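TA notes, week 10

Several of you asked for a full example with nothing omitted. So below is the full record: structure tokens for the whole chain, then the designed sequence directly under it. When grading your own attempts, check the secondary structure regions first.
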């Protein structure tokens, strides 16, 4: 099979990428498709209600268990701790039936083999991410796993994503400017920019490239396979 040529603007980013941060529930695994979040959010709500806490209707109707978990952390630390355990257990169960994003094994292997640092990061429990990587034989390529536990006991907020990315860079002993975030999400790309990290956007099957390739320090590739090829063929610039 002929080696694909990496486009020059993508190669320029890869040359400066000494560490790659892969978003777990995005570039690695489609976790949300394998879990029903509403029962967990409802259980956290019921525990708060039983403890005498009353919340607004808007919060009570939120089906997102992670948002409800952070809310519980704010208003009742003991129930917040229980909520974190509940969400973690559901995530660990869900990853056992989830499958890797096509081509991600090759991308992780190529990145690792090229001498770049590799981290998996996300607003998911580290236990679930570790379980998933072990199940699929991917842990050997990953130098650091940074889940939402690194945010405890601080509550979630506008800077949660930036904090996780900076924690992942630090875990790899890398500067943010030497890192690139691998993501399928335009929103994650914006978070990376705020954290001083470049992004390597992977275009979804029916997604627009233009949203992943802006601003100028963010580039997009057509597939995870193209990204793997780039990691394998574009060396890091020596300092």
């Amino acid at each position: 099979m002929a080696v694909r040529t990496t486009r020059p603007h993508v190669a320029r980013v890869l040359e400066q990428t000494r560490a790659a941060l892969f978003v777990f529930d995005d570039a690695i695994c489609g976790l949300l498709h394998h879990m029903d979040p509403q029962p967990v959010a409802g259980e956290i709500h019921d525990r708060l209600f039983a403890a005498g806490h009353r919340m607004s209707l808007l919060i009570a109707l939120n089906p997102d268990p992670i948002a409800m978990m952070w809310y519980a952390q704010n208003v009742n630390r003991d129930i917040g701790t229980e909520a974190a355990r509940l969400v973690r257990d559901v995530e660990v169960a869900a990853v056992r039936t989830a499958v890797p994003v096509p081509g991600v094994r090759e991308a992780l292997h190529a990145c690792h083999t090229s001498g770049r640092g590799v981290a998996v990061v996300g607003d998911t429990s580290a236990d679930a991410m570790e379980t998933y990587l072990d199940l699929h034989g991917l842990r050997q390529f990953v130098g650091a796993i940074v889940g939402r536990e690194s945010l405890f006991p601080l509550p979630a907020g506008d800077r949660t994503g930036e904090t996780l990315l900076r924690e992942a860079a630090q875990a790899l002993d890398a500067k943010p400017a030497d890192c690139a975030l691998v993501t399928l999400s335009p929103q994650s790309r914006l978070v990376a920019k705020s954290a001083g990290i470049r992004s390597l956007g992977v275009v979804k099957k029916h997604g627009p490239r233009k949203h992943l390739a802006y601003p100028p320090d963010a580039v997009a590739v057509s597939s995870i396979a193209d990204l793997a090829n780039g990691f394998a063929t574009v060396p890091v610039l020596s300092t």
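The radius of gyration is 19 Å. Use that as a sanity check on your answer.
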